[in-house]
């Protein structure tokens, strides 16, 4: 008879270690999961299904074709997926042209307790994403979040990168659907 942990003990330990990690993401992902500028998307952790599976979608609205420096815009994220009851997202706004390509473009701001701004550990990039309360929906099939973006006082074109997770709410990385998109605004 071999010595050491049984298969059941190994599985139990793996589940015990994974549960706190899965629950931690209800409050939002690590900064830098938008899919822009070489970043991964939410699929880094929620890897069960292909990105942009056709029965769902994510979109950004309210981004002007051409922004006015210093002006504030209301931007809406919409995540559609049949029967989705929980979901999340992360968005960034960055300069799209040299010499400051990839740097923060303007300021992102939460308008309610459903979203929050988080910062990367390195650099000046800020991300806006859902909170725990913002990951739940009252309308199955659709999630909506609105936030404010103040356009940069200087700089050129801006690119918004967005990744979203239409979750099955089982607190695991399996069975979820990831969607990603981008939008641009010129000066």
Briefly summarize what is shown.
The chain has 1 helix and 9 strands, in the order H-E-E-E-E-E-E-E-E-E. The protein has 187 residues and is mostly beta strands. The radius of gyration is 18 Å and the shape is globular.
Question: Mind explaining what this structure looks like?
Answer:
With 187 residues, the chain is mainly beta. The protein has one helix at 7-24, and strands at 57-61, 72-80, 86-95, 107-110, 115-119, 126-130, 142-150, 158-167, 177-185. The chain has one domain: Immunoglobulin-like, CATH 2.60.40. The strands form two sheets. The protein has a five-stranded antiparallel beta sheet with strand order 5-6-3-8-9, with no helix packed on it. The radius of gyration is 18 Å and the shape is globular.
Can you tag this structure with a few keywords?
187 residues, mainly beta, Immunoglobulin-like, 5-stranded antiparallel beta sheet, 1 helix, 9 strands, 35% strand
What percentage of residues falls in helices of 4 or more residues?
Answer: under 10%
- CATH fold-level label: Immunoglobulin-like
Regarding quaternary structure, how should these chains be classified?
single chain
Low-confidence segments: 4-24
Summarize model confidence as the mean pLDDT: 84
| Backbone structural class | mainly beta
- What global shape is seen? globular
Terminal-residue CA separation: 72 Å
Please state the CA-atom Rg, rounded to the nearest Å: 18 Å
- What is the CATH superfamily classification? Immunoglobulins
Strand content: 35-45%
What is the CATH level 1 assignment?
Answer: Mainly Beta
By CATH, the architecture is named Sandwich
- Strand order within the widest beta sheet: 5-6-3-8-9
């Amino acid at each position: 008879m071999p010595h050491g942990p049984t298969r059941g003990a190994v599985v139990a330990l793996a589940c015990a270690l994974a549960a706190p990690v899965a629950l931690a993401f209800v409050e939002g992902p690590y900064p830098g999961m938008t899919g822009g500028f070489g970043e991964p998307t939410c699929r880094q952790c929620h890897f069960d299904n292909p990105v942009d599976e056709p029965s769902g979608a994510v979109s950004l609205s309210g981004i002007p074709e051409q922004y006015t420096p210093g002006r504030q815009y209301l931007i809406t994220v919409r995540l559609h997926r049949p029967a989705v009851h929980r979901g999340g997202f992360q968005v960034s706004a960055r300069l799209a042209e040299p010499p400051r390509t990839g740097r923060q473009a303007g300021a992102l701001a939460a308008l309610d307790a459903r979203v929050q701004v988080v910062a990367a550990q390195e650099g000046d990039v800020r991300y806006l994403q859902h909170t725990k309360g913002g990951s739940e929906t009252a309308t199955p099939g659709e999630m909506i979040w609105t936030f404010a973006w103040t356009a940069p006082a200087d700089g050129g074109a801006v690119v918004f990168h967005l990744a979203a997770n239409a979750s099955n709410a089982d607190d695991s990385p399996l069975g979820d659907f990831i969607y990603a998109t981008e939008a641009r605004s010129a000066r």
